[in-house]
Design a protein that fits this description.
486 residues; 15 helices; 20 strands; six-stranded mixed beta sheet; binds nicotinamide-adenine-dinucleotide; single chain; alpha/beta; 21% strand
């Protein structure tokens, strides 16, 4: 790490690969890390080769029997210490994340607290991995069921939540008795490496957690998935890459959990508390600058309240201070890189060509860094292209609707099904619509659903499996049935 970066963050984050408890240089050169607020390279991190990846699999495989045999309480205590260490270092970790990801410091602080909670939650779940015993209907034998660790797990995480997506996988894997090889996104390796150093400090044994940033994720992951010692892939990222990894994992029938893209609808009915809906819309859209799989991507607002909603949302978003994430008072940092900003700009342009009207924003400010102004588009036609893609930026397209069934049908007209939000004061309507929406998670009069204690995940092409809650622990186990007669 450069001296400057250490001064800016207040910490000396590692920049090597972590394999078998040792930090090393990568055999595939280095990976430059860029600050999206300045476009400057701020660090160089070791880049892993396929050979490094197989060394990490060996380390994880050798560490597995001892770790799986450790009393659950001891595994839980390691995670509990990791939680406490993350909270001790919350401020430098948050600053480090801002510099490599761009998000505003307030968002980064929120993410570190959220990320640490996964260690605390799974410290508690480690001792609650219970099976069951029943009698076969014929009375011939007992049915004994236990959940054993699935084994060496490959974890792949995206850049938008560099800490939380790592802890949401490492926490349950370690609690269940698995050992892991984590591959963080190339844009944000520093946060993952810093979290790994804290796990070492917390007493996690050598080889249990291995971390491999790389410039060549494809070949490296293929080599790991082809290795029969790897029994699990837990991936968070785009649906496109998820589909490719599922095909690769099919060759070895590797167990997969996939947290993929979203295209969340946000429904506002004419009986909603509009001020509460604006607050919820603000959180659902602007948490993490819109770079979230859970981000509200399509606002469907009933005719009678649409003009009020549009004007109030535009007023709320245009009051945000845009700038480098570490500056005082900044609400919205830059997007992660130039490609992401170009995609956002193109989607806004296509929405206006399709008939949408810009109420606020609609352009990138004239300054260095990958910034884009908070934007509200009203009168977007329900077949506009912007509604079928993840925007992944601070842009809120509003579509007006007339009746409830039309709103449900519009909300479900996507291949994705991660989360949906709805605002109404009518309980019967809320529950009826919640049941009809095709999504793994629903926020009723809430703009945020994520919680370490709740099962997070999607239906349709938003993924397979769940993270968080007790379900998240089970994803890292295999169910074993023992027929026994006594
Ligand atoms: P991405 O799919 O481009 O990359 C995700 C990870 O996969 C990165 O670590 C990347 O290096 C790696 N990767 C890319 N190509 C690979 C390959 N061929 N083989 C192996 N690994 C490969 O996604 P991203 O741009 O980093 O993240 C944004 C996406 O993640 C969005 O679609 C977002 O919705 C999704 N996401 C989903 C959740 C969820 O829980 N459902 C959470 C956060 C982000």
């Amino acid at each position: 790490m450069t001296g400057n970066l250490a001064t800016m963050t207040g910490m000396n984050a590692p920049t090597g690969l972590l394999i078998g408890g040792h930090w090393s240089a990568g055999r595939a050169g280095v990976l430059p890390v860029t600050d999206p607020a300045t476009e400057d390279v701020i660090a160089e991190v070791a880049s892993a080769s396929t050979e490094d990846a197989l060394d990490a699999v060996t380390a994880a495989y050798e560490a597995l029997p001892k770790w799986a045999a450790r009393p659950p309480r001891e595994r839980g205590e390691c995670l509990r210490r990791a939680y406490e260490l993350m909270m001790r270092d919350a401020e430098p970790l948050a600053r480090l994340m801002v510099i490599e990801n761009g998000k505003a410091l307030r968002d980064a602080r929120g993410e570190i607290a959220y990320a640490a909670e996964f260690f605390r939650w799974y410290a508690e779940e480690a001792v609650r991995n219970s099976g069951y015993l029943s009698v076969a209907p014929s009375g011939a034998n007992k049915i004994m069921v236990q959940h054993q660790p699935v084994g060496v797990s490959v974890l792949i995480t995206p850049w938008n939540f560099p800490a939380a997506m790592a802890t949401r996988k490492i926490g349950p894997a370690l609690a269940a008795g698995c050992t892991v090889v984590l591959k963080p996104a190339k844009e944000t390796p520093l946060t993952a490496l810093a979290v790994a150093a804290l796990l070492q400090e917390a007493g996690v044994p050598e080889g249990v957690v291995n971390v491999l940033p790389t410039t060549t994720p494809g070949p490296m992951t293929e080599a790991m998935l082809a290795d029969p010692r790897v029994r699990k892939l837990s991936f968070t990222g785009s649906t496109e890459v998820g589909r490719r990894l599922l095909r690769t994992a099919a060759d070895t029938v590797t167990n997969c959990s996939m947290e993929l893209g979203g295209n969340a609808p946000f429904l506002v009915f004419d009986d909603a508390d509009i001020d509460a809906a604006i607050e919820g819309a603000f959180l659902a859209k602007m948490r993490n600058g819109g770079e979230a799989c859970t981000a509200a991507n399509r606002f469907y607002v009933q005719d009678a309240v649409a003009s009020e909603f549009s004007a109030k949302l535009a007023a709320r978003l245009s009051s945000l201070q845009v700038g480098p994430g570490l500056e005082d008072g900044v609400d919205l940092g830059p997007l992660v890189n130039s490609d992401t900003r170009s995609k956002v700009a193109q989607l806004v342009e296509s929405a206006t060509k399709d008939g949408g009207r810009i109420v606020t924003g609609g352009r990138a400010p004239d300054r260095p860094g990958y910034f884009y102004q908070p934007t509200v588009l009203d009168d977007v036609p329900s077949d506009a292209g912007i509604l079928s893609e993840e925007i992944f930026g601070p842009v809120a397209p509003i579509v007006r609707f007339t009746d409830v069934d039309e709103a449900i049908s519009l909300a479900n007209s996507t291949e994705y099904g991660l989360v949906s939000y709805l605002y109404t004061t009518d309980l019967r309507r809320a529950l009826r619509v919640a049941e009809a929406l095709e999504a793994g998670m629903i926020g009723i009069n809430r703009g945020v659903v994520s919680d370490p204690a709740a099962p997070f995940g999607g239906v349709k092409q938003s993924g397979l499996g769940r993270e968080g809650g007790h379900d998240g622990l089970l994803e890292f186990t295999e169910t074993k049935y023992i027929a026994v007669d006594w």
